[in-house]
């Protein structure tokens, strides 16, 4: 089976599994795979197909079907101006809140912007009239495509039916390469293309009755994995379930503080891999989480809103905004006890390495800061290295209100976000950021004399540049000649002078005791600078990993 035929068959099958009962088609060459798949589904009585020779007519026919049935209706076109003829119907669907699905066939990317026939810009054609847009990669015979394709169809249905607000039009753009007609002479597809909606991703759409994601059975090896600031992490852990958070121990006393280190230990995971993972929110920080969630042997359920959830592998079984009542976890199971024991061993090993490190090592700084914050504090953490240092080094503690700009995970506006949090939240407020993040939003500290001023302490881990890059591939010794200029990017800025000019108070600390005293002094905007190093960060992370591995070897 050729790739274009494969994706067309899967998409039509998943649309039907998601409740689509009608489809409208305008003929063409590039959309031939979709035409053939829809024709077969119609012949089998699985969908009712409507063929129209004018795309503008087809668009409004689909609009009427969707408006009356209150179900998403796809309209399928070939490439070029055929898609543009749908624009009036898309605009009407936008303003009327009608779940219209545009399935537009397109040329592969290598045929765009080179003068190829029947090519226009279909990516930006409908502008902000769409609730959602996704372009499928040109299909190829790669295992795992089936699940990813089906998952994206489910996501598009969620957007069309109002999961992000009002219902409205969505567009799935398909880059289809020749051959475009079914060809049984080609090699078999490398995986089964069969499946129903419940075999891939079922999304609890707005307005539907749902009890939420099922809690684990007593005999189920189930692990919860939470994003950095998810409010359920501490609650679920306190009920006796195994929970790993991107924030490590800062997420709560019962959360597995060394959890991310356990996930990264291949030997431990080979023996203690969960059969099921319940994802809380959208964790994006750690590669070991990606490895776990893309393991085909692991069942993945997601507690998140029907849009925006993480679905890299397309293998989430179900997405729901709610979780069933907690009950009590099976804290006495052999498997869960092994995880708890491993967490204690790993945490002890991490503590020994960090105790031997100075506060100029940013993981040590993060651990000290989290431990020193008063009860009920708000902690806003910057992207890049600080958020990772907290998750990998913080010990267990309670009653922190965590926050981070993890939607797009940029360093933009972090000072201003922290100031806004401090102005709106109860309790003392602190921010933990890197020097580049701090410098990126210096104007956030510019507050007019008549404006409300927050009580906020900003702790800056100043390693004079981009510390995170030393821990990534770019930090390998093979790239040393270019590293400092294009990744390390030293700036040599005097934070004391900058902060003074902006009217905030400043302190520089060099020891944990000095940090504790500085944290205890509050009033207005205060900046605490800690000079940290980055040339040894990669080695320290290696030490932490080795220490955990040695500790777990005796488990």
Give your account of this protein's structure:
With 555 residues, the protein is an alpha/beta fold. It has 3 domains: 3-195, Thiamin diphosphate (ThDP)-binding fold, Pyr/PP domains (Rossmann fold, 3-Layer(aba) Sandwich); 222-344, TPP-binding domain (Rossmann fold, 3-Layer(aba) Sandwich), CATH 3.40.50; 362-535, Thiamin diphosphate (ThDP)-binding fold, Pyr/PP domains (Rossmann fold), CATH 3.40.50. Helices cover 36% and strands 16% of the residues. Strands 2-1-3-4-6-5 form a 6-stranded parallel β-sheet, with helices on both faces. A 6-stranded parallel β-sheet has the order 7-12-11-10-8-9, with helices on both faces. Strand 5 (132-136), helix 6 (145-160) and strand 6 form a beta-alpha-beta unit.
Estimate the strand proportion: 15-25%
CATH superfamily membership of the largest domain, which one?
A: Thiamin diphosphate (ThDP)-binding fold, Pyr/PP domains
Domain count: the total is 3
CATH topology of the largest domain: Rossmann fold
Shape: globular
Number of strands: 18
Protein name: 2-succinyl-5-enolpyruvyl-6-hydroxy-3-cyclohexene-1-carboxylate synthase
Cofactor: thiamine diphosphate; Mg(2+); Mn(2+)
Catalytic activity: isochorismate + 2-oxoglutarate + H(+) = 5-enolpyruvoyl-6-hydroxy-2-succinyl-cyclohex-3-ene-1-carboxylate + CO2
Enzyme class: transferase
How would you briefly describe this protein structure?
It is built from 19 helices and 18 strands.
Pick out its properties.
555 residues, alpha/beta, Rossmann fold, 3 domains, six-stranded parallel β-sheet, 19 helices, 36% helix, globular, EC 2.2.1.9
């Amino acid at each position: 089976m050729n790739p274009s035929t494969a994706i067309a068959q899967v998409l039509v099958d998943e649309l039907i599994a998601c409740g689509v009962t009608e489809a409208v088609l305008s003929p063409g060459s590039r959309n031939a795979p979709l035409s053939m798949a829809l024709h077969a589904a119609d012949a089998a009585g699985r969908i009712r197909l409507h063929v129209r020779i004018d795309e503008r007519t087809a668009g409004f026919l689909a609009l009427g079907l969707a408006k009356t049935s209150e179900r998403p209706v796809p309209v399928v076109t070939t490439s070029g101006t055929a898609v543009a003829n749908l624009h009036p119907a898309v605009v009407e669907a936008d303003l009327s809140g009608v779940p219209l699905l545009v399935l537009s066939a397109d040329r592969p990317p290598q045929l765009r912007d080179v003068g190829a026939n029947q090519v226009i810009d279909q990516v930006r054609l409908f502008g902000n009239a769409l609730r959602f847009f996704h372009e499928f990669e040109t299909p190829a015979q790669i295992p795992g495509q089936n699940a990813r394709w089906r998952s994206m169809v489910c996501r598009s249905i969620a957007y069309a039916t109002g999961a992000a607000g009002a219902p409205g039009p969505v567009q799935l753009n398909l880059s289809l390469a020749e051959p475009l007609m079914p060809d049984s002479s080609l090699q078999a597809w490398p995986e089964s293309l069969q499946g129903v909606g419940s075999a891939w991703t079922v999304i609890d759409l707005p307005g539907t009755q749902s009890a939420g994601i099922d809690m684990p059975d007593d005999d189920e090896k189930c692990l919860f994995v939470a994003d950095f600031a998810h409010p359920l992490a501490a609650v679920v852990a306190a009920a006796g379930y195994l929970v790993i958070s991107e924030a490590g121990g800062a997420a709560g006393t019962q959360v597995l503080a060394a959890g991310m280190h356990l996930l990264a230990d291949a030997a431990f995971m080979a023996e203690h891999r969960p059969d099921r993972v319940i994802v809380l929110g959208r964790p994006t920080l750690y590669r070991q989480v990606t490895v776990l969630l893309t393991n085909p042997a692991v069942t993945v359920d997601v507690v998140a809103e029907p849009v925006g959830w993480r679905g890299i592998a397309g293998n989430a079984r179900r997405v729901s905004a709610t979780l069933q009542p907690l009950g009590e976890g099976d804290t006495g199971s052999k498997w869960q006890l092994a995880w708890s024991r491993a967490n204690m061993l790993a945490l002890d090993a991490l503590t020994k390495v960090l105790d031997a490190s100075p506060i100029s090592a940013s993981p040590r700084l993060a651990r000290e800061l989290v431990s020193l914050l008063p009860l009920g504090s708000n902690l806003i953490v910057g992207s890049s290295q600080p958020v990772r240092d907290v998750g990998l080094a913080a010990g267990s503690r309670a009653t922190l209100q965590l926050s981070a700009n993890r939607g797009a995970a940029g360093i933009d506006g972090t000072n201003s976000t922290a100031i806004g949090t401090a102005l709106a939240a109860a309790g003392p407020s602190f921010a933990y950021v890197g020097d580049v993040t701090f410098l990126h939003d210096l104007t956030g500290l510019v507050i007019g004399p008549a404006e409300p001023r927050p009580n906020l302490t900003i702790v800056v881990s100043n390693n004079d540049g981009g510390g995170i890059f030393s821990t990534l591939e770019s930090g390998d010794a093979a790239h040393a000649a270019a590293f400092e200029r294009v990744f390390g990017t030293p700036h040599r800025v005097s934070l004391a002078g900058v902060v003074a000019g902006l009217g905030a108070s400043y302190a520089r600390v060099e020891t944990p005791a000095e940090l504790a005293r500085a944290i205890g002094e509050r009033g207005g905007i205060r900046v605490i600078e800690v000079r940290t190093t980055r040339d040894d960060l990669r080695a320290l992370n290696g030490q932490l990993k080795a220490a955990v591995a040695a500790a777990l070897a005796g488990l």
